[in-house]
Amino acid sequence: MLAAGRKSSPQSDQALGELCRTYWYPLYAYVRRQGKTKEDAEDLVQGFFARFLEKNYLEGLAAERGRFRAFLLAALKHFLANAHDRAQAQKRGGGTEPLPLDWQDADARYHLDPPDPASPDRAFDRRWALALLERVVTRLRDECAAEGKARLFEQTKGFLMVGEAVIPYPRAAAELAMEEGAVRVAVHRLRQRYRGILRDEIAQTLDDPAQVAEELRALQAALAG
């Protein structure tokens, strides 16, 4: 997706905009950690995205080895360091169409986040990883709902990232009125699909799909750290 985004088209622009809408909150939290107020952070992030999308900054992605995560943060740092860009940010993109971002929710999330002793860059990576997992779960939930399996998903989603040995299959089977073996098969398939969506979502943020495994390890390390 990112390689295609270097040559602007309606499809690539839409895909890039979707990536920005998915991963904007880690940028907002990063700006807040620089001591900016809620209002200033809103203006700066919206102004950054307006310029980012207008100028097709993806042409410089190779400098970050094809990682949209690292490239986006580097681009934001450059934007924050530029006094002219800060002035333009106060105009919320200078008349361009702003991204539809939920600022009220962002501020509430920021204040609910526990204090993070990590550096702003590491905290950004952790928030990025959490946003990625939220995106994956949302896609999986929507797929299950479309297949008429919404209740099954709600009853088994808690098993996606826990060890096999601790899953209470008998209780889940009783709650779903299913055979225990059927629940085991359903959880196995759900986990397989979860991993597939996870890899797909990571691939969409990379210039080189061969880096998926490396990026997955980096994000797992960010969550563990």
What's this model, at a glance?
The chain is mainly α and 225 residues long.
Care to describe what's here?
- The chain has 225 residues and is an all-alpha fold.
- It has two domains: 1-113, no CATH class; 118-225, no CATH class.
- The chain is built from twelve helices and no strands.
- It has helices spanning 2-5, 10-22, 24-33, 38-55, 68-81, 83-89, 103-112, 120-146, 150-156, 169-176, 180-203, 212-224.
- Helix 8 (120-146) packs antiparallel against helix 9 and helix 8 packs across helix 11 (180-203).
- The longest helix is centred in the middle third of the chain and has 27 residues, at 120-146.
- The chain is elongated and about 65 Å long.
- The two termini are 29 Å apart.
* Shape designation: elongated
Helix content: 55-70%
User: Would you count the extended β strands for me?
Assistant: 0
* Residue-averaged pLDDT: 83
- Amino- and carboxy-terminal Cα gap: 29 Å
> From the alpha-carbon coordinates, what is the Rg to the nearest angstrom?
20 Å
SSE order, one letter for each helix or strand? HHHHHHHHHHHH
The biggest sheet amounts to:
none
Runs in which pLDDT lies below 50 for 5 or more consecutive residues are: none
Strand content: under 5%
Q: Can you tell me the number of structural domains?
A: 2
Helix-and-strand structural type:
mainly alpha
Write the layout of secondary structure elements.
Elements: H1 2-5, H2 10-22, H3 24-33, H4 38-55, H5 68-81, H6 83-89, H7 103-112, H8 120-146, H9 150-156, H10 169-176, H11 180-203, H12 212-224
